[in-house]
Write a structure and sequence with these properties.
The chain is mainly β. The protein has three helices and ten strands. Strand 6 and strand 7 form a beta hairpin.
């Protein structure tokens, strides 16, 4: 399943059986290297929160798992960013930008690999965020991110969607080797990307965003 450049694709983060977030992105390219998406500043998104309005990072995980949830409309507040999803890999690579739209750093989002779906009127990729991440500076020095959060949640295996801590860390170490070697996509590819200013910013998440998650093998 390939997505045509210019098409809107929903990047959906799944926490267990629930939708945690939905972000409408523009397809920049989709080829043997992987899927490259653009998330524009100001895009309409959907996020999960507790019914009291707090998010998952506003409280200990032990409290979060005992609450009721809802999904609500929101807006992507940060600068626009590229999301690159390589084929058959348990991570994506995000290209963060500063307020002026210049490349600032890479961000490796460790996630259970993307599953594509296409309902005709709307399409997307479903991922399971595995929380542990890697921040990569332009000089390719790097550091782990959210290790405390990852460790905290692993203590609740009956509620946490990450099943194999060792596999997550192993995927991270594989990516680190590519980072340190300056291999694609950490070789400067797309760091000078600039979106077409005529591209519309999604004002609403397309209908069908809440379709059931793709079953995993």
């Amino acid at each position: 399943m390939m997505f045509a450049p210019g098409r809107t694709v929903l990047y959906r983060n799944i926490d267990g059986p629930r939708l945690a977030s939905v972000r409408p992105c523009r397809v920049i390219s989709d080829d043997e290297r992987g899927l490259l998406l653009w998330l524009a500043r100001g895009s309409a998104v959907v996020v999960e929160e507790a019914t009291d309005g707090r998010g998952i990072r506003d409280m200990p995980f032990a409290e979060w798992i005992g609450l009721d949830y809802r999904v609500v409309p929101a807006t992507w507040q940060g600068p626009g960013l590229l999301k690159f999803i390589p084929p058959d890999a348990d991570h994506s690579v995000w290209f963060f930008r500063d307020a002026g739209g210049r490349f600032s750093n890479w961000y490796v989002n460790l996630e259970e690999r993307a599953l594509r779906w296409d309902d005709g009127h709307v399409a997307g990729v479903d991922v399971i965020d595995q929380d542990l991440d890697i921040v990569v500076r332009p000089d390719r020095t790097w550091e782990w991110k959210d290790e405390d959060e990852f460790t905290e949640r692993l203590a609740f295996p009956e509620h946490y969607w990450v099943r194999d801590e060792a596999a997550v860390r192993a995927e991270g170490r594989r990516v680190v080797k590519r980072i340190e070697a300056g291999e694609f996509p950490f070789d400067g590819t797309w760091t000078d990307f600039q979106p077409d200013p005529s591209w519309p910013v999604p004002a609403a998440v397309p209908p069908g965003w809440d379709r059931p998650p793709i079953p995993r093998p």
